[in-house]
Every structure is written in C-alpha cells, then in structure tokens.
Amino acid sequence: MAHQEHDLTIFRGLIRFKTITHKIWGVLLLLSIVTAIEVALGIYKPDVLMTYFLNMKILNWIFIMLTIVKAYYITWDFMHMRDETKSLRRVVVWTFIFLVCYLVWILIQEAGYIFDIDSVDYIKRDF
Amino acid sequence: MSSAVSVSSNENTWGGGNKPMNASYGKLMMWFFLVSDGLTFSGFIAAYGFARFKFLDSWPIADEVFTHVPFLHGQELPMIYVAFMTFVLIMSSVTMVLAVDAGHQMKQSKVAFYMFLTIIGGGIFVGSQAWEWATFIKGDYGAVKTKGGNILQFVDSHSHHRVALHDFAHKHHSDRVQHQETNGLWFYDEGTLPPYTIEEVIEGMEASPSLLIRTQILDENGHKTVLSREESLNVLKTHGKSIVTGANLYENEYGVPLFADFFFFITGFHGFHVFSGVVLNLIIFFNVILGTYERRGHYEMVEKVGLYWHFVDLVWVFVFTFFYLV
C-alpha cells in the first residue's frame, strides 16, 4: 500500500506534477475552470451557440461535453483510476458507457415518438 | 511431485487473498457497487430526459426557477448558488483525496484532519440542498392552473417580468375553512388552502390593465409565450381552475408537474447519497481517531469510502448539468 506508484501526468503527459498533492490541486484548478466556464455560458447564453445541431442546441452539446471532461478527471485522478490496471479500468468504464448509451438512446427515441403523438390533432392538451 | 505442486497452487488460487486486477476485494466490490449505483442514477437522469423530450415545447426554464441565493432576498441570480454548491462538493472531494494520500503515508492526524474537512463540506452541501428544496416548495410568484392542468403565470406587460399573486389579487373575506380529519370523515382531509380563490385572482386581473398571462408553451427562441390582454382575460376566465403556489409532487407554479417530481426525486436521491456518505465518513473518521487503521497497518478503508464520496461528487456534476444548465 505504502509504495503504490502514482501516475503524475495529465493531458497525456503534457503536464507533469512533482507530487501527488500538486496533482490534486492541479486537477481541482482544472475542474474549477471548467465549472466557471459552464456557469458563465449558462448565465450569458451567447446567441451564436443557440443554433441547433442534431436536434439540440450547440450550447447544450458543449455543456454535456464539458461534463464528461469533468467526470473523466474526477474518475481518473480523484478516484485513482489512472493508477489501476487497464483491465479494471475497462471493466468499469466500458460496461457503464455501453449500458448508458443504450438507455439514453432508447428513452430519448421513445420520448420523441410520444412528443409527436401528442402533437397530433385528436389529443387535446390546451384547455 | 507434480501433483503436490498443483495442490499448493490451487490453495493459492482459491484460498483467498488473491487480488484480481491488482485491486483488493473491498476496492473491487466498491467499484462494482458504484457501477450499479451509477446505472441507477443514469436511469433516473435518462427518465428525466424522456420527460423533457416528451414536453419539449413546454418544459420550465430552470434559470427562472432556481434564482435564489441565501441572504440576497428578492434578487434574481440564476446559477450562482448552485455553482457554489458544486464548488463545495468538488472541494470536499479534494480534501478526501488528500486524506487518502495522507493514509498512504500513514499520517494519522493528517488523515483525521482532512476527513473532518470532508465531513464539513458534505454537511454544507446537504444544508444548501435543504434550503434549495425549501425555496422551491415555497415558490415565489404563484400561478393559476387550468382545467387541463396547464400553468398560467402573470407578467407585467412592459418588462415581461413575473408578477406575484399577492400584488394584484383582491382578497375577500371567506368562510371557507380547511377540511380536517377531526371534523368529518376520519380518512378524508385536504391540503393547505391556497391564499386566494380563482375569482379573487380574476377580479384582480381585470382591475390591473398592465397584467398579461404567460403560458408554458415555448416559442422558437425558447421564451414562454405571452398572450395579448384580451386573450389573457379570456383564457383565465374560461380555463382557470385553481391557484398554485410553489411546488409539490402534484403541481407546481413553474409548469409541467414532472419537472418538480424529477427535481425532488433525483436531487433527493443524490442528497440521500451525500447524507449516507457523510455518515460513512463520520464512522471512518472516528476509526481513524481511535487508531484502528494504524493498528491494521494500512488505511485502505479511507480509500474505499473515498471512492464512494467521489462518486457522489461525480453524480452531482451530471445532476448540475441536466437540471440547471441544459
């Protein structure tokens, strides 16, 4: 336990920290910056990003991507996934991603169907 | 000879103490639990997505709902408080990793100190969430519900800002009292009576010419539709049925009831995770102080409870995105 090796690099080795403590504060800084960007975008909502791409606003795509970036650094550095074996990483991450992709796809797909059905004339909600 | 060798290797394989994927039993099981718990949350959030896409043209706008910050009463500050909550939770995650790291170095007092900070962070977060719930349940402007279950909000014709019911409704004396179990059938009672009746609101609306009605339907720019004065009065008189203030599981003044249902359910389930995380952290904290892990020779328990704590943070990152940002 005491001599566990830590991978002290992030951004594929672009930034190398001296100690594990430095890395933790570095990742905190990164997460804070990403959150600050999200909050700023959420408050100002630039018009450029309000156009639609694949049925969703570009702004929302950016939010989801930034969230996944944050999730990556929380899992990899705070939960020490970076230091686990490749097999453990894959067992946890790919299982999860595969099931979530399916779940999201089937539910959003069906919600779109119900939205279309509801907008057919004979279903009346406007009263 | 060869049989003896295979017997002993069998004992090594099945006798316990093996570490598949280089992770101890406890850590591996924690990861498996987190995957399944993560899928539970994904199910909830995907269901929220379902509800949202189903009501794509009438979903409430989160920025108009969660605008409150403690001690800054009456100011519209969307995102600020929830950003603060997010930061508190990320910060408590940091102190948790620092505790895990101090555990690797076998520094008992440092582990205890960082665990303590983590617990404080968790406490602040749960408290903030309770406040957020209370504000949401109380509501701020009030609205009218139609016979079809749609929400009609009142706005000023110039600024298009929402106007509270108590600013214009004409309050009459009423003999209507809340029906309670004690003065009727024991199995039948009713909730708190709304502050006004629909007639009082209609009267108030007629007397204030600057008021318009805003429906829950979104236009192509993502704003709620505001009706003209004639349409407003017409809709209110023909469709208006009851008064809604704040939010509960049946109705809320912001629009689609599912909005509040999912808010209560998902943030509630997450808040319960934070609460149980704080309880687990407290138990481990006392164990650290008592020297349990010092005697055991390693602080792996701190690492395991840390995994759970980071997971709670991880879930919040997604809840934050899907409830407040998107």
Q: Please give the order of strands in the largest beta sheet of chain A.
A: 1-2
What is the CATH topology of the largest domain in chain B?
Four Helix Bundle (Hemerythrin (Met), subunit A)
- Mean pLDDT across every amino acid position of chain B: 90
List the uncertain runs of chain B.
1-8
End-to-end C-alpha gap of chain A? 66 Å
β-strand percent of chain B reads 5-15%
**Count the helices of chain A. How many?**
3
Large-scale geometry of chain A: elongated
Provide the domain count of chain A: 2
What's the assembly state of these chains? heterodimer
Question: How do the SSEs of chain A run, as a string of H and E?
Answer: EEHEEHH
Order of helices and strands of chain B: HHHHHEEHEEHEHHH
Helix content of chain A: 55-70%
Structure description:
The complex is a heterodimer of chains A (127) and B (326). By secondary structure, chain A is mostly helical. Chain A folds into two domains: 1-83; 85-127. In chain A, 62% of the residues lie in helices and 6% in strands. Chain A has three helices and four strands. Chain A has helices at residues 20-44, 58-78, 86-118, and strands at residues 9-10, 15-16, 52-53, 56-57. In chain A, helix 1 packs antiparallel against helix 2. The longest helix of chain A is centred in the C-terminal third of the chain and has 33 residues, at 86-118. Chain A is elongated. Chain A starts with 8 loop residues before the first strand and ends in a 9-residue tail after the last helix. The mean pLDDT of chain A is 88. Chain B has 326 residues and is α+β, with helices and mostly antiparallel strands. Chain B folds into two domains: 23-139 and 259-325, Cytochrome c oxidase, subunit III, four-helix bundle (Four Helix Bundle (Hemerythrin (Met), subunit A)), CATH 1.20.120.80; 143-175 and 191-245, no CATH class. Chain B has helices at 2-14, 25-54, 62-65, 80-104, 108-138, 198-207, 229-239, 257-290, 292-296, 300-325; strands at residues 143-146, 151-156, 211-218, 224-226, 240-244. A five-stranded antiparallel β-sheet of chain B has the order 4-3-2-1-5. In chain B, a hairpin with a 4-residue loop joins strand 1 and strand 2 (151-156). The longest helix of chain B has 34 residues, at 257-290. The termini of chain B are far apart. The model of chain B is unreliable at 1-8 (pLDDT under 50). Classes of the chains: A mainly alpha (127), B alpha+beta (326). Chains A and B meet through helix 1, helix 2 and helix 3 of A and helix 2, helix 4 and helix 10 of B.
